From TrEMBL:
Topology versus the membrane: Multi-pass membrane protein
Cell compartment(s), UniProt: Endoplasmic reticulum membrane
MF GO annotations: sphingosine-1-phosphate phosphatase activity
Matches recorded under CDD domains: PAP2_SPPase1 (cd03388)
Biological processes, Gene Ontology terms: sphingosine metabolic process
Domain called Phosphatidic acid phosphatase type 2/haloperoxidase: residue spans: 132-248
Record keywords: Endoplasmic reticulum, Hydrolase, Membrane, Transmembrane, Transmembrane helix
Family matches, as Pfam families: PAP2
Keyword Transmembrane helix found: yes
GO cellular component terms, A-Z: endoplasmic reticulum membrane
Name assigned to this protein: Phosphatidic acid phosphatase type 2/haloperoxidase domain-containing protein
Protein's UniProt keywords contain Nucleotidyltransferase: no
Lineage of producing organism: Eukaryota, Metazoa, Spiralia, Gnathifera, Rotifera
Length: 417
């Protein structure tokens, strides 16, 4: 029988990740010696096993910050270090020698972050197709909940530093296997192509080729940023493809049930809370639980909006069955809908999260201005879940209703049912 343990061990070695980083221009600072450091507790070094030392970051990480903001912050730090060789910072222990690959892989990694979720799903819903968006969001919530829960159950750490240089502060405290970025990159693009091909006439091989390019781009970006080993990436990809195989035959049935069952909004809301309560308990706080709550809240909010739209007759049943030709949209109206919608989503996010945080902290006697208050499960769950449930609902219901009322709505004749 084939012994696969050595293969897993080899794929999980951090030196492969470090070699990949060096090849694409991420190098350790010359004045930092991260591999073997004399036995001294100076410069924020903490002794680990085998007399190895790890450098700890003094700066607190803002877990409520936007991923794009953190990317810009790290770019500024790296730029300052390249301009001033005398800079001594414990925050950034790397230097960038190729800014092309830096931006290329940062953008690829962003495709699996919150900034992409906030942009992709609304743009698709408002300008392309609501039916496909509903089914993709169902798969998205399923993949990410299973993936994040598996990660916290297995508790397999990220690649060791040193020799790996971690470029993203936000996810350092999460576990590594399986990579949920890889699960997203493998599951969602392929699901999007397959579901779209059921409704629209296009060359599926071109679609699958584009999905493969996105998958590879995102996966390699996580290696470049030092956040995952090759084992994490390969495991996450295979895991996602298995879940696609399991979930894909069921997604149409689930979608029809959500649309036709009148009490679906209540069921969705309660199911989201139940899944969050069932999320594995972790020994150390990380962003995994809050990210999962964001995904569940936005998905169930959006699905609840579809039930209401169907109940009041806003979802039109097409006269002819699929497949349909792809009709180029009015780009001017697409741009207008996107700008107005994103402004409304931003206002929703700011208002709801502020109200929920203040109310929740008031109930439990906590200071709402203290960032650590959001780490308590009793605050974190309603803070993220209610905020993003409201965002998902407004994306699917309020914004399309607004677009119809001012006459900038898209064609709904064959894109909703």
């Amino acid at each position: 029988m084939l012994n696969i343990h050595p293969i897993f061990t080899w794929l999980n070695e951090p030196e492969h990740v470090a070699r990949f980083q060096r090849y694409f221009g991420i190098l350790p600072l010359t004045d930092h010696k991260p591999d073997l450091i004399p036995k001294s507790d100076k410069n924020n070094l903490t002794k680990k096993n085998n007399d190895l030392y790890h450098r700890e970051h003094k700066t607190e990480v803002s877990y409520d910050a936007n991923v794009l903001d953190e990317c810009i912050e790290e770019i500024q730090h790296s730029t300052n270090q390249n301009e001033n060789k005398n800079t001594n910072s414990s925050e950034i222990d790397y230097r960038v020698t190729s800014w092309f690959w830096y931006y290329f892989f940062q953008l690829g990694s962003a495709l699996g972050n919150e900034i992409f979720y906030i942009l992709f799903f609304p743009i698709w819903i408002w300008n392309v197709d609501g039916c496909v968006a509903r089914k993709v969001s169902i798969c998205w919530a399923f993949f990410m909940f299973i993936g994040q829960a598996t990660k916290d159950i297995l508790e397999i750490p990220r690649p060791l530093t040193p020799p790996v240089l971690k470029l993203e502060k936000r996810y350092i405290e999460e576990y590594g296997f399986p990579s949920t970025h890889a699960m997203f990159a493998a599951g969602i693009p392929f699901t999007l192509v397959l579901l779209s091909h059921q409704r629209y006439d296009f060359n599926i091989w071109i679609g699958l080729g584009c999905a493969l390019c996105v998958c590879v781009w995102v996966c390699l970006s996580r290696i470049y940023l030092g956040m995952h080993s090759f084992l994490d990436i390969i495991g996450g990809t295979i895991y996602a493809l298995i879940l696609v195989f399991v979930m894909f035959p069921c997604v149409n049935t689930i979608d029809n049930f959500i649309l036709d069952f009148t009490l679906s909004p209540i069921l969705n809301f309660c199911l989201g809370i139940f899944l969050i309560k069932c999320y594995p308990s972790v020994k150390q706080w990380s962003t995994a639980r809050s990210d999962t709550t964001v995904i569940l809240g936005s998905t169930f909010g959006f699905l609840s909006s579809a039930t209401l739209l169907n109940a009041i007759g806003y979802l039109e049943k097409p006269i002819f069955p699929p497949t349909y030709p792809i009709i180029p949209p009015n780009l001017g109206l697409c741009f207008l809908r996107t700008i107005l919608g994103l402004v409304f989503v931003y206002i929703t996010r700011q208002v709801v999260k502020t109200v929920v945080l203040r109310c929740t902290c008031s109930v439990y006697g906590l200071d709402w201005k203290d960032p650590n208050s959001k780490r308590y499960a009793k605050v974190e769950m309603p803070y993220y879940y209610l905020t993003y449930f409201a965002i998902g609902f407004n994306i699917g219901f309020t914004c399309p209703f607004l677009f119809r009322s001012i006459g900038i709505n898209r064609d709904y004749s064959f894109t909703e049912l």
